[in-house]
């Protein structure tokens, strides 16, 4: 928004201004007459004339100024169409070149901002041209040239600058020439390959009801709070996170929260020009794949209690049970069982006054940690 300081001059009464001006002139005459008198003998009378003339002159001048009021409105805002015109010019340019899918995207962005009827009509034209082009290409591929030409002409009626469509019509005209005409060696103009768009779309959606926070290339993109338990949503559908990105590889970080704990999963997706790559996520599986089961148990006999800490947090005591053969299952009596985040953890044991610390690496398949005491 750009503000403009505008102003207006309001004359209270033009007749009053004229009267003040006449008094002003009269005051000047009296003033000069008084000055003239001062130069002669009658200085007392001349001084009186001078004082009266000066008073009339200054008073009429101030009254005249006061008769005019200048009002300055505090707010006189105008709206500047920030970059909309440039965006529309770009959209028109790709439309004229025949890139109707890109033009549709750009017109939709502009229309969401302006709600302009002109943009709405341009958007409708772009959608129709894209639809007719797809139909025409199918007819041309099947050698149904007459039907293809009808669809191509619909496009030319709206966008006469589409060079590719005009070339296609020339090719059809050549193919449909009557066979009895003498053949002339003609070099068919080859349609110019359309450049691959430099962007694509990345659509991320949830398959379960567990909320998921999303980052793409380290940038927050919001949360998935809706889910699609059956089927795949359309690209850009409500309830998904759909982002237009440049071609190439992009990193997606999905994070789920369980109380004070957070569990993350990072994947990489490769985007091609014009593609819409879909990435389904399941919050419950993200948590499941981020947690491993840690079972701590002794395999030799011991003669006093063993205190156990995991990552500095006290977990309990092992008493009089050991497993010299088959290891215990998660949750069995006599062992300490904990669900921990996948990765490295520190186990601290205290036995008969001796303290030991060891690093272990827990995977999503879990870890059985054996204690040996002599």
Helix content: 25-40%
How many domains is the backbone divided into?
4
CATH architecture call of the largest domain: Alpha Horseshoe
Class by SSE composition: alpha+beta
**Number of helical segments with 4 or more residues:** 8
- Total DSSP E strands: 18
Mean pLDDT equals 79
Percentage of β-strand residues: 25-35%
Q: What is the CATH topology classification name of the largest domain?
A: Serine Threonine Protein Phosphatase 5, Tetratricopeptide repeat
Distance between the termini: 80 Å
Measured on Cα atoms, how large is the radius of gyration? Answer: 44 Å
Shape: flat
Order of SSEs: EEHHEEHHHHHEEEEEEEHEEEEEEE
Largest sheet: 4 strands, antiparallel
Unreliable stretches (pLDDT < 50, length at least 5) are 1-12, 40-46, 68-82
Strand sequence of the main sheet, in spatial order?
Answer: 7-6-9-10
Summarize the topology:
Elements: E1 2-3, E2 8-11, H1 14-39, H2 43-66, E3 68-71, E4 77-78, H3 84-96, H4 100-114, H5 117-141, H6 145-158, H7 163-175, E5 199-206, E6 212-216, E7 219-224, E8 241-246, E9 248-258, E10 261-271, E11 276-281, H8 283-289, E12 291-298, E13 306-310, E14 313-318, E15 336-341, E16 343-351, E17 354-362, E18 367-371
Parallel strand pairs: 5-11, 12-18
Antiparallel strand pairs: 1-4, 2-3, 5-8, 6-7, 6-9, 9-10, 12-15, 13-14, 13-16, 16-17
